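Input/output pair, single chain:
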Amino acid sequence: MKVMVLGGAGDIGSGVLEALCSMNVDTIVAGDIRYEDAKAVSENIRRLGCNCEAVKVDAIDLESLREASKDVDVVVNTIGPFYKLGFPVARNLVSLGLNFVDVCDDYDAVENILGLNGEAEKAGVTGVTGLGWTPGLSNLLALQGSKLFGEVEAIDIYWVGSAADSKGLAVVLHLFHALIGKVPMYLGGSWTLVDAGSGGVEVSFPEPIGRLKLYYTGHPEPVTLPRHVKVKDRVTVRGGLIPPWQNAFAKFLMRALNVNSDVKAERLAKLIHKVEGVFRVGGLKVSALKVEVLGDNGKVSYVTIDRMRRLTGIPAALGAVKIAGGKIREPGIKPPEASIEDSEEFLGELEKMGIKIVKVEEP
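Output:
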């Protein structure tokens, strides 16, 4: 089994490599355009006792990707921001006949990647898009919760991130993209657009996070879940940052600088990334996810708190191993809830790898 991680020198990519190492994959490849950084990461993985190689690759360049992916069984793409890079990388992977998993967290990119489904089916390519933290773990928890009810009324997803728990410009770019303009939600039994950053609600998490106000953010779950899980009323995603002052500061900057496009957001994101260390001071090095499923005879909630790179990297790595091992084999590109037949088994395996999930049922 040989698995290549695109963006392997990054925070999330190196997290995927570490997870693959713990799964006894024969050969792991850290693929990145930053070759020296990829070599450093691969050396760290080898110290853990795993066979890890480094390769320089520009995933947007078809020939570069072709050369780097020789003899690879499956690819994990972690290169962001996905609203810019998710589709062209997925298109190249399909063109080369490469099975893949990605951690795409942008709603518009997921729509475009799913549009490659027909081409992937013809090429015999198996792809799972959005198999990370949110989306990914969130989708599977929603699917698992839905099985407890005869009829599902609503699925509400809440995420919390922290600058102290993340690295890399792509994370900042994704956040601003998710807060620009109108974003899709599934409300009243149909898809609609809402103002990003609106719809604030108070949500409680276990310590050390506590109670926070979270807001509508653009994510793929409202786009994909209603297609595969029958939901009567709504699928929503709300998110926010800790400490909470960062939410207000982000909104202030976007209003003051009239950030209403990805071009403007990218300029602001690069500026913030340069001084991101200021935002990490005193912050919690954790991220969190809460999924609530409301059914015809009660409600179930799932909560998990961990490092972002683990919450994202471990599900992606496990998905890649299942594709390489023939456990996920149907050709085409699908979201996690349509690709992973046994959500209970998958979630159980994640728990064995240290992703603790707390389940609470209410009448």
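The mean pLDDT is 92. The longest helix spans residues 308-324.
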